[in-house]
């Protein structure tokens, strides 16, 4: 079939969108045909969607189905931002992909304050990706046998062998069992090195569940039971952590707060307490922060992360305290920041360039160091964004700034 015939068959419904590749010589040709068919079906001229630079063959195999083009998001940069981390050391220009006016300007102001104050200090406190299957058992005795087995060194050795049969990179760190009636939830935690690792831990967990089924007569109900918890608000992620658990902190002198933020350390602390602590508590929010999701989303999109993991990333706590000499001590704590520098969208051309800007493209040496470096950069950028917004609220400049940049 030629191009026009394929388009007609899609429009008429004779050919499914996902079948086009079967009749074309390349994935690029299939993409173009699909886009023209969608244009006819919707009556929409898709001249901008057709402009992109990524490699069609690679992206349509790994990242997208029924491809018709690309959506562009403006990319800005904030910095330089000085970071004194375990993995991120030096000054960084941070890419932020967003359509929200005033966001980049605000983060950039926070970067200036942080750099002038000597830089942001960062540390990684935990690094693990979780997957939690659920099995159904016949009796409570069977449930207890499974729980006790995962406390046995001998059985755990078998479990680790099952995991290692599926991956050369992932490492099982531990398993926490939870019983609800005749259901056993097993929350596996893995070190996934530089990968975000959801595919890795899913495949590894499946291998372990085959062992559990054979050994205990249990029946696997679902590889993901929502105890992981992936891409949903969940207290377990806030308490136990998921992804890269990261903390960023800085001390800013009273003079810098006065000159750069146009307010006082006392006012920043007051806003943080009443907004981020009392307001969040009254709303029963998992996010005790001002707008962490803004920075997580903008950096995730720019750097090829899964944007839906903003849910976990926004589970952050912003803290502001006075030092004994009247300066401002400011921190942001991320219990759950899932990200990676290999796999997923990190290989897409534009996102790959953004990772290169930060010096974190690909696998690190040692393994895991690039992903941890990226976590420290994002945490530091989020701190800069929190600092700027709380300063704007404290100085009563928020509406004026949005009127200038965001309308």
UniProtKB/TrEMBL annotation:
InterPro entries: HMG_CoA_Rdtase (IPR002202), HMG_CoA_Rdtase_cat_sf (IPR023074), HMG_CoA_Rdtase_CS (IPR023076), HMG_CoA_Rdtase_eu_arc (IPR004554), HMG_CoA_Rdtase_N (IPR023282), HMG_CoA_Rdtase_NAD(P)-bd_sf (IPR009023), HMG_CoA_Rdtase_sub-bd_dom_sf (IPR009029). Pfam families: HMG-CoA_red. The keyword Cytoplasm does not apply. Keywords: NADP, Oxidoreductase. GO terms for biological process: coenzyme A metabolic process; isoprenoid biosynthetic process; sterol biosynthetic process. Pathway: Metabolic intermediate biosynthesis; (R)-mevalonate biosynthesis; (R)-mevalonate from acetyl-CoA: step 3/3. Gene3D superfamilies: 3-hydroxy-3-methylglutaryl-coenzyme A Reductase, Chain A, domain 2, HMGR, N-terminal domain, Hydroxymethylglutaryl-CoA reductase, class I/II, NAD/NADP-binding domain. It is an enzyme of class 1 (oxidoreductase). Its EC number is 1.1.1.34. It comes from the Archaea. The keyword NADP applies. It catalyses: (R)-mevalonate + 2 NADP(+) + CoA = (3S)-3-hydroxy-3-methylglutaryl-CoA + 2 NADPH + 2 H(+). GO terms for molecular function: hydroxymethylglutaryl-CoA reductase (NADPH) activity. Belongs to the HMG-CoA reductase family. This is 3-hydroxy-3-methylglutaryl coenzyme A reductase. It comes from Methanooceanicella nereidis. The lineage of its organism: Archaea, Methanobacteriati, Methanobacteriota, Stenosarchaea group, Methanomicrobia. The gene is hmgA.
């Amino acid at each position: 079939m030629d191009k026009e015939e394929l388009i007609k068959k899609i429009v008429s419904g004779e050919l499914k969108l996902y079948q086009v590749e079967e009749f074309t010589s390349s994935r690029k040709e299939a993409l173009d045909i699909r886009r023209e068919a969608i244009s006819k079906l919707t009556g929409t001229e898709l001249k901008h969607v057709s402009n992109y630079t990524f490699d069609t063959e690679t992206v349509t195999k790994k990242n997208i189905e029924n491809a018709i083009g690309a959506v562009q998001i403006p990319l800005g940069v904030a910095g330089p931002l000085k970071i004194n981390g375990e993995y991120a050391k030096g000054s960084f220009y941070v890419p932020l992909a967003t359509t929200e006016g005033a966001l980049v300007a605000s983060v950039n102001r926070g970067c200036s304050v942080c750099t002038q104050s000597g830089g942001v200090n960062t540390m990684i406190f935990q690094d693990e990706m979780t997957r939690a299957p659920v099995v159904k058992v016949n009796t409570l005795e069977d449930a207890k046998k499974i729980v006790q087995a995962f406390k046995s060194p001998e059985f755990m050795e078998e479990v680790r062998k099952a995991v290692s049969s599926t991956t050369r990179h992932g490492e099982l760190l531990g398993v926490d069992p939870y019983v609800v009636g005749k259901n056993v939830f097993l929350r596996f935690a893995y070190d996934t090195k530089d990968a975000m690792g959801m595919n890795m831990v899913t495949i590894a967990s499946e291998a372990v569940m085959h062992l559990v089924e054979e050994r205990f007569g249990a029946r696997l109900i679902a590889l993901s039971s929502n105890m992981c918890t992936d891409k949903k608000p969940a207290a377990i992620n806030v308490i136990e952590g998921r992804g890269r658990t990261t903390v960023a902190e800085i001390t800013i002198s009273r003079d810098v707060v006065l000159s750069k933020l146009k307010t006082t350390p006392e006012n920043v602390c007051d806003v943080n307490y009443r907004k981020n602590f009392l307001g969040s508590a009254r709303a029963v929010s998992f996010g005790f922060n001002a707008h962490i999701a803004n920075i997580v989303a903008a950096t995730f999109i720019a750097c090829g992360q899964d944007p839906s993991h903003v849910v976990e990333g926004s589970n952050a706590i912003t803290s502001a305290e006075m030092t004994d000499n009247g300066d401002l001590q400011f921190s942001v704590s991320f219990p759950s920041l899932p990200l990676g520098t290999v796999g997923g969208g990190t290989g897409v051309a534009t996102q790959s360039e953004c990772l290169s800007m930060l010096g974190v493209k690909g696998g690190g040496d040692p393994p895991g160091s690039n992903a941890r470096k990226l976590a420290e950069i994002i945490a530091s950028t989020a701190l800069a964004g929190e600092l700027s917004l709380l300063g704007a609220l404290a100085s009563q400049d928020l509406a004026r700034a949005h009127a200038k940049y965001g309308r």
